[in-house]
Design goal:
The complex is a heterodimer of chains A (about 290) and B (about 270). Chain A has helices at about 45-55, 80-85, 105-115, 120-130, 150-160, 180-195, 205-210, 230-235, 235-240, 250-260, 270-289, and strands at about 5-10, 20-30, 35-40, 60-65, 70, 85-90, 165-170, 200-205, 215-220, 225-230. By secondary structure, chain A is of the alpha/beta class. Chain A has a 6-stranded mixed sheet with strand order 6-7-8-3-9-10, sandwiched between helices. Chain A has a 4-stranded antiparallel sheet with strand order 2-1-4-5, with helices on one face. In chain A, β9 (about 215-220) and β10 form a beta hairpin. In chain A, α3 (about 105-115) packs across α4 and α3 packs parallel to α5 (about 150-160). Chain A is globular, with a radius of gyration of 21 Å. In chain A, about 40% of the residues are buried. In chain B, strands 1-2 form a two-stranded antiparallel ribbon. In chain B, β1 (about 95) and β2 (about 100-105) form a beta hairpin. In chain B, α3 packs antiparallel against α11 (about 245-265) and α7 (about 135-145) packs antiparallel against α8. Helix content of chain B is about 65%, strand content about 5%. The chains are: A alpha/beta (about 290), B mainly alpha (about 270). The interface of A and B includes residues 88, 94, 144, 159 and 162 of A. Chain B: Its main location: membrane. Chain B: Keywords: Cell membrane, Membrane, Transmembrane, Transmembrane helix, Transport. Chain B: It is a multi-pass membrane protein.
């Protein structure tokens, strides 16, 4: 589903001394099937933004369009449940949402609410649990007996089992160990490719953004600060540092390399291996001449 | 969540009322609550209302905010007024309306009672609007201090109060967070038959309790790790101190009380 924000404003507690503008005149387009990273500091409006995506809040002014659904300040979405079944949101620390007696029941909770037939739910559970890395013997256990990382996986499985078309991920790997982070992100990326999802990743991690996203939106104080392809955005060191963001390690490395060797290797989202061979070529060329 | 009700909410500010010693505020409000019931003439109500309104304006909190925040209470006040209008049968009949007789006594009674209601709620919400929960508990601990001689656990009580007050916003945030997550998983808290809505509370309450217990455990652990062991010999970060402005307010309040008793029975 295509997602469009047009001049969206969101104000918390309007008309009180606590009034606070969370989003200001925000516009962007996310075409169906893209992988978008939304980056910004705490308080930049990321969390408020994602609540617009499945109708948890309505904009104070402006238009939000998600597929056929329109959210404005004065009109109510008639079929909110359908919108929520098509936009799945994995919130920060999703393990806090677990409540059922068994892991299996908790995963089934979302699809049940959206009236997915029982045997279809069972089928989905069998499909998804190996993907997110939950061994089958855990299905009958209580989610509260699991480790933090396993609880996270169960919670994520609970959202994936809804089979949304748009997947919104709010720092899904925060607090996991490095290996778990990598596994988890790869899993999301595979699913994104395989199911043709539209994925929106909210993150602090430049590394994840540069690795997976094909479009990057940088927020600052509730407004759009930069937008574009990762290889365009992430080389603008000065602009990024202005909003307390660092360029990714790879770009930092290339900058340092240029400084030491006087050779500029343009950044085109190469992998580490590709950069290694480019350097090898350069060094070999330098030796032979 | 409950944006409309402001009772219990603190609005930061620098007004004289904000800076008063919390004990002063509590003691004056305590007595104010008593003397409201002594008012019996229009003028005596006038004295009390003037005091309450003057305090309200001194806080510099926008009036529309206070008035709007008391919306649910307005309803109660109007309801009380109407109830008295219908039930009380004293004095002479003023008008007859659809078989109902409205008595003059009823009008006066209804007016008096709703006025009391209004004054009580206005003044007590001014306390919480201008005083942080921590200040209030400090003040209560201090005021109750003499009870310590009777082995009453004053410090522990104050600690319990401040912890529970401290965690109200945290739990509210948590509730909001969990309800957002469950709403995204298709729970409908707002519409549908009552039975379904009651059932929808379970996915909200279970995680909330789990996290509340976890927080309690963490807090206890953190306090113990820092060697906390209660009242004896413990000094305070914020010392309460009676200043000139407090004394001024006490004197002013004595005049208000005197004015009230002076204008009583005037008609």
């Amino acid at each position: 589903m295509d997602i469009t924000f047009k001049n969206v404003n969101y104000i918390y507690q309007q008309g009180t001394p606590f009034e606070h503008k969370a989003i200001e005149d925000l516009s962007f387009d996310i075409p169906s099937g893209s992988f978008v990273a939304i980056i910004g500091h705490t308080g930049s409006g990321k969390s408020t933004l994602i609540q617009h995506l499945n109708g948890l809040v309505r904009p104070s002014s402006g238009d939000v369009t998600i597929g056929d659904f329109h959210l404005t300040n004065d009109s109510k979405v008639k079929n909110m449940k359908e919108l929520r079944s098509r936009v799945g949101v994995v919130f920060q620390y999703p393990e806090h949402q677990l409540f059922e007696e068994t892991v299996e029941k908790d995963i089934a909770f979302g699809p049940e609410n959206f009236d997915v037939p029982k045997d279809e739910i069972q089928k989905r559970i069998r499909e998804i649990t190996p993907d997110v890395g939950i061994p089958e013997e855990l299905l009958k256990r209580s989610p509260f007996e699991l480790s933090g990382g396993q609880m996270r996986r169960v919670a994520i499985a609970g959202v994936l089992a809804i089979k949304p078309e748009v997947l919104v991920l709010d720092e899904p790997t925060a607090g996991l160990d490095p290996r778990g982070q990598k596994e988890m992100m790869n899993m999301f990326y595979d699913m994104h490719k395989r199911e043709g999802l539209t994925t929106i990743l909210v993150t602090h991690s430049m590394e994840d953004a540069v690795k997976y996203a094909d479009h990057v939106i940088i927020l600052n104080n509730g407004t759009k600060y930069m937008e574009g392809k990762p290889e365009e955005v992430f080389i603008q060191k000065k602009a990024l540092q202005k909003v307390q963001l660092e360029v990714p390690d790879i770009v930092q490395f290339l900058n340092a390399f240029e400084e030491k060797f006087g050779k500029r290797i343009p950044y085109r989202r190469q992998s580490i291996e590709e950069i290694a061979s480019e350097i090898q070529q350069f060094l070999e060329g330098a030796e032979s001449s | 969540m409950s944006n409309s009700l402001i009772i219990g909410q603190y609005v930061p500010g620098k007004s004289v009322i904000h800076r008063l010693d919390p004990r002063t505020k509590i003691i004056i409000i305590f007595f104010f609550v008593f003397i409201v019931f002594f008012a019996n003439s229009v003028l005596s109500y006038g004295v009390l209302t003037a005091f309450a309104l003057a305090s309200m304006f001194t806080t510099r909190i926008p009036m529309y905010y206070i008035i709007k925040g008391l919306t649910p209470v307005w309803f109660l006040i109007v309801f009380t007024f109407l109830l008295h209008l219908i039930v009380t049968k004293e004095g002479s009949v003023l008008i007859e309306f659809l078989g109902f007789k409205i008595y003059s006594g009823a009008l006066i009674q209804g007016f008096a009672i709703s006025m009391r209601f209004f004054l009580l709620i206005l003044v007590t919400s001014l306390l919480t609007l201008t005083t942080t929960p921590i200040e209030i508990t400090d003040a209560i601990e201090n005021i109750l201090h003499p009870l310590k001689k009777m082995k009453f656990p004053v410090h522990e009580l104050a600690l319990m109060m401040s912890i529970s007050l401290r965690f109200i916003p945290t739990l509210m945030q948590e509730t909001e967070k969990i309800s957002r997550a469950q709403a995204s998983r298709g729970v409908d808290f707002r519409t549908g038959p009552l039975k379904e809505r009651v059932k929808a509370v379970v996915p909200l309450l279970v995680p909330l309790f789990v996290s509340a217990f976890k927080r309690a455990e963490d807090l206890a652990m953190a306090m113990e790790a820092r060697g906390y062991q209660g009242g004896e010999g413990r000094t305070k970060l914020r010392e309460l101190k009676i200043e000139k402005r407090d004394i001024f307010i006490y004197i002013l309040f004595v005049f208000v009380v005197a004015g009230l008793f002076f204008t009583r029975n005037w008609s």
